[in-house]
Specification:
flat; Importin-beta_N; 661 residues; single chain; mainly alpha
Amino acid sequence: MGFYIASSAIEANIFIIVMENALLNVLSSDSLIRVPAEQSLKASEESPGFLLELFRIYNDNPNYTLKLCALILAKSVIIRQWHIVGRDGKITPVPDEEKIKIKDFLYEKVLINREPHQKLLQQLVLCIESVSKFHFYDQWQNLLQYFPNKLNNLEFLDIYLLKVLVKTQIRRRTKLRQFKEWITGLYPGLKSACVLYENNIDLLKIILKCLTVIHDTEMIHSLLIKAKNYLSVRGGEENVRVLLKGLNLIENTAPEVFSGLILHAFIEVNCILLEELDVRKHDHLVLIRQAVYNIRQILGSNDDAVSIIESLSPSLLKKCFDAYKSEDYWEKWVNNEFIELFEVKRISESKYFNKLLPNLIQSYPLLLQEFEKLIQSLDTLDFPTLHSTLYIFSLLPKGLTSITNCNITLEILLKSISGLSFEGFQQKVIFRDILVLIKKWLKTTQNFSIAFSTILSIKSSKNSDIFLIYSSILTIKELLSYPVPEDVPIQILQAYGNDFIILLSSCSDPNIIWNLVSFFSALVSKCPSKKVPELLQIFTFFVLDKLWSSKIEIIVIAITEMLGKLLRIYADESSVIEAVGKFLKIQLKEKCSERVEFLWLLFIQTIEVEETIIVDGLLVYFKGLFERNKSLAVKILEEYKRLYQALDKNPENIAEIIRKS
């Protein structure tokens, strides 16, 4: 139950005390205290006077914690209630007269008689930001007129508040004309302020946002020169990042500005960054990410940029190669530490260059000649170089989508790799690289037999182990999404059936289980129908207890997707019907995923009339479904009617069956 707005002095005092207690109780770790307080505050925030009362508590109460709580809640209430206008008998949560008082109060506390506590001042600024999302240009004139008079004597708080307001207003797309008018009036003073506050990041952000609507080419060019200078200054990385991000925004909104000297300077700064920064240094990564993003963007949108970058493309390609390095986690293979290997991801440090490589290939197809030379020299590379080279080759297909005359194929790659010889964990790493390469290149080939034979040869190697087998299964899962020869699914079953059961029986990680079940689903859907009963019998025997009753969402998704696919393909197969029936009976006993309930609907729509005895047993769970999802329950009920009509049962008896359930 919420608070009410008092009608007398006594009621007002009681109201304030109760409200203050609720604000403090929200901080309690005891949910029995915290939750009712949260609910009562939430229920009261739509009442006129509530928001104003929060600011009164902040202003009058000496308790610092209470002041902070009141401002934090006030900011949220502004976002939720400020814009709402009461209609059809509903009240307006924040009436106009209260809005005027609140805006005047915020203006006073932030810009005139400034709040001395930094955290409280920060919350007041955030309240101004929230209000400015709804009231600014015509509705908050004193705030609007404050800055033109302060540009010659800006304080750091002024700059920070102006940054907040500019950021908020530039996002109000319906107010773009007013934003441009406001900024145009401020811009000359802001340019002058840049000289006085040369290294102020907030002022730099303001200028960059101004330039999205005021296309001052001279200023943009000077900022690019600044960016180059910042590169040589210790600690200048953040300034460079802000500049590059802001300039990219300007390029997106006004691409016509980026030509001639500006375009050359923009490309030069980004390419210098990519050339000089070290991907292995964590503090360089954020700059590398922005520079790569800028180059990728401009390659796709500016033909002049493509011509300018062409001479730099070989060095950028080399940087893509150099960015990838062998990780020491592969050494874990020596000690058979498989569990950690299952969760291995490709290194994050190189991922930005991974995204750049396809753009370079699409823009400069002649770079493929470098890859063709590499193929000829694979047998001369040492292990770390070969490891990184195979990984880079696995990225190529993304860049080949628009190239029709590529001389590099999966067949050529696999034949070139087949003669390579390594021992121990190095061979395992190379095998895993080959599996990744096959997975990425499948979309470019029609020769799936050579891909599968290579996968089988890795399994038959003396160095094959459980992690390589799992990696092989992931690659085969991808392979099964293509039109493979008819005999391949049977060969897969023969080669990997036992491995699949061992992995699934011993594994507890939901993501790995999802991959394994998805693999099995793809395999069953590609196998001849006569093999389906045998496969399902194996599957249900080994995983029924382990997975059928699981409530882990990702596992439930995998099972329901597999059974749904089987229902659509093998609707007349009794083993499929029995498997789905068992799964539904186990899952529907308790509150279950919506996916299971939709599988129930598909099940009833699919089965033959003579099999209704299976779905009859599911009716006991209908009541729970009806409470959770009435529209789905009605659809399921309609299917039951259809089945019972076909059996000459009286459909009117269904209501009685459901009532009994």
